[in-house]
Structure formats: structure tokens, C-alpha cells
Design a protein that fits this description.
This protein has 351 residues and is α+β, with helices and mostly antiparallel strands. It contains 3 helices and 16 strands. The protein has a 12-stranded antiparallel β-barrel. The longest helix has 43 residues.
């Protein structure tokens, strides 16, 4: 007869324990959120000279923008072996395979900027891609950026047989991860020049240092002898450059320019083929020698930025142009170059 009372007592204790755990979890989450929010704000305020730059009263932003991207992927692969024309028609000994693929994309963009931490949510308009994501942290001293894009609408040509390359038979995935450090962060703000996260009250410049990892994965079908070929490059680079903000009207109007040469610390390429079951893999060893056995060379790459922004206190108009060149080459003279340019116009509101 006491079982119902015991069961009720047990359930009550479980409910109390659950509410206690939930309360503790909620308190921890709120505490973590406050700490993270203070950390972001500290990243904006730390070590700045208030006579040169300032933190806006409203430190968060939401913006919509219009973006146009142009990407170009080029590859020049020398061929090895004798009588290669017996393998693939129209090829001569000591010839080269040359691919030139490009894509123009247009998109709208919605982004949330929380005290310098920005999440980009692109909406493709022209030349739709499978996926594009961006995350950036802009601080007075340091920051970082992550970007991934999966393109499936590239067009171009191959020199062998004058073959056209279209969206049906090639794709390109790119991944970028980079971090920067501003030496003259007391007077100069990279975030003010590029995104108007900060206010550059007086003109100033600074040397910059960047650490950059860039990866490309290019796939092409029925262009080389194999059914499909995959060329993946990895590069880790260290860059040193300079940036300058030209401020007018007390920082209401700011023009920005920066240039950063990048020096490769590590470079590597992987090549994979998909051959028919009836094809003899060994006969392609010489054909793909430059892609499979070459050793990477030291390269100097670069990126350039130009920007302008005008602030109406709470509302902001920004323009941004990026130019980034990344190249790979090896001791067997295989060369790959990736050129990425984009122009952006954003309409922002602070809150």
C-alpha cells in the first residue's frame, strides 16, 4: 500500500534533481555567454590610442550586400615518355596539357557581425554553387578568417584537341584559413578600414603579418586519358605586408589599401585518377609523372585589398575589392595558378 507514496517521493526527487541540473546548466551557459561577449569586446578595445581610433557606441552589425566573384584555375602539365601520341591522339612528345577554367558568380549576402565576429550567409544569384560559408574575427590586434566554396559551374578549355570544359565535367573546391597580426594596432585598425567595425578617426598605417593555409581540389572528367582526374594542392604560407587607412571627416569616410606578399612554408600536391577496368595503370606512369612524382618549389603569392566606407552614425555603406593569387609549381615544371577576385557593396546597420 506504500508503493504509490514511495513512487511519488522518488519522482519528486528526480524532478528536483533535474531542475537543479538544468538550472546549473543554464547558469553555466549564461556565464559562458557573458565571458565570450566580454572577450569579443576586449578584442576591439585592447591597446588602442583613442586619439586615432574608437569603438562605436553600437558594436554589432547586420548587413546585406551584393557580391561579384571571378575565379580562374590554370594548370600546365608537361608530358613525359616516348610516342605519347599512341596513347592520346593529337599529343606530341614533350607536349603540355594546359587547362584554363574560370567562373563568374554573383550573390546576395546576409551577414551578422557580433563585436567583430562575422558569420556570412551567401545567397547565390548567378552560377550557383553547392556550398559557400564564411566566418571571420576582426580585432584591433589580431583576427582570422575561414572560407569554403564548392564550385560546379566552371567553363574553359584544354589545349589538347581544343576541348571545351563546361559545368558538366569539372568542379573546384577551395578552403582558406588565415590569421593576421597588426603591429601598429594602437593607431591603425584593419577592421575600421575594411568593415567599419571600428572608427579610424585619424589616418594611420601599419605593417601586417599573415599566416595562411590554402587548399584547392580540382576535378575534371573525360579531359585527360582517365575518366576523371583530381588535383589537390595544399599550401601553408607566411606573409608580411603593409596597410593604410586614409580617414576624412573625423573617420566618417575611410579609404583603405593593403598589400601582402605570401611566402610558402609548405606546399604539396596529390593526384588521383579514375581509370577504366580494362586500362593498364602502369602505362600511365610516365604520362602523369609530373603530377605524381614532382617535388614542390618555393613560391611567392600575394593578395591585395582596396576598400572605402562611409558612416551615417548608425548606417554604413562599404565597398571592398579583393585580389588573391596563389600558385603551385614543382621541379618537373607542372604549374597551377588560382586567381580569385571579388567586389562587394554592403549596406549595414549598427545595433
Amino acid at each position: 500500500m506504500n508503493r504509490p507514496k514511495h513512487a511519488y517521493s522518488f519522482l519528486r526527487r528526480m524532478a528536483l534533481c533535474l531542475s537543479l541540473v538544468t538550472g546549473i546548466g543554464t547558469a553555466h551557459a549564461e556565464n559562458w555567454f557573458r565571458q565570450f561577449d566580454r572577450w569579443l569586446e576586449k578584442g576591439m578595445r585592447s591597446g588602442i590610442d583613442s586619439s586615432y581610433q574608437a569603438v562605436p557606441k553600437l558594436m554589432n552589425q547586420v548587413y546585406v550586400g551584393s557580391y561579384v566573384y571571378w575565379q580562374n584555375y590554370r594548370m600546365n602539365m608537361p608530358l613525359f615518355g616516348d610516342n605519347v601520341n599512341t596513347i592520346v591522339p593529337d599529343i606530341q612528345d614533350d607536349d603540355h596539357y594546359m587547362i584554363n577554367a574560370h567562373s563568374v558568380q554573383a550573390e546576395a549576402d546576409v551577414a551578422i557581425d557580433w563585436k567583430g565576429l562575422t558569420l556570412e550567409l551567401p545567397i547565390p544569384i548567378q552560377d550557383k554553387y553547392h556550398l559557400a560559408l564564411g566566418l571571420a574575427k576582426n580585432g584591433s590586434v589580431w583576427g582570422f578568417r575561414l572560407r569554403y566554396k564548392d564550385l560546379h559551374q566552371m567553363e574553359g578549355d584544354c589545349n589538347i584537341g581544343n576541348r571545351l570544359i563546361n559545368q558538366e565535367n569539372n568542379s573546384l573546391q577551395t578552403f582558406l584559413a588565415e590569421g593576421y597580426y597588426v603591429f601598429n594596432h594602437r593607431k591603425f585598425s584593419l577592421a575600421a578600414g575594411l568593415y567599419s567595425d571600428m572608427i579610424q578617426k585619424r589616418s594611420a598605417g601599419s605593417p601586417l603579418v599573415y599566416l595562411n593555409y590554402f587548399q584547392t581540389n580540382y576535378s575534371v572528367n573525360k579531359t585527360f586519358p582517365a575518366n576523371s582526374d583530381h588535383f589537390q594542392t595544399h599550401q601553408l604560407s607566411l606573409g608580411a605586408g603593409y596597410a593604410y587607412n586614409f580617414a576624412l571627416m573625423g573617420g566618417r569616410l575611410v579609404f583603405h589599401a593593403s598589400f601582402v606578399p605570401m611566402f610558402t612554408l609548405y606546399s604539396h600536391m596529390e593526384h588521383q585518377t579514375d581509370l577504366d577496368n580494362g586500362q593498364n595503370t602502369s602505362q600511365w606512369n610516365e604520362f602523369y609523372k609530373a603530377a605524381d612524382t614532382g617535388h614542390a618549389r618555393f613560391r611567392i603569392n600575394n593578395f591585395t585589398r582596396l576598400a572605402a566606407n562611409y558612416s551615417f552614425d548608425r548606417y554604413i555603406i562599404t565597398f571592398l575589392f579583393n585580389h588573391r593569387y596563389t600558385g603551385y609549381s614543382n621541379d618537373l615544371n607542372l604549374q597551377i595558378s588560382h586567381l580569385d577576385m571579388d567586389a562587394q557593396v554592403n549596406f549595414c546597420t549598427r545595433f
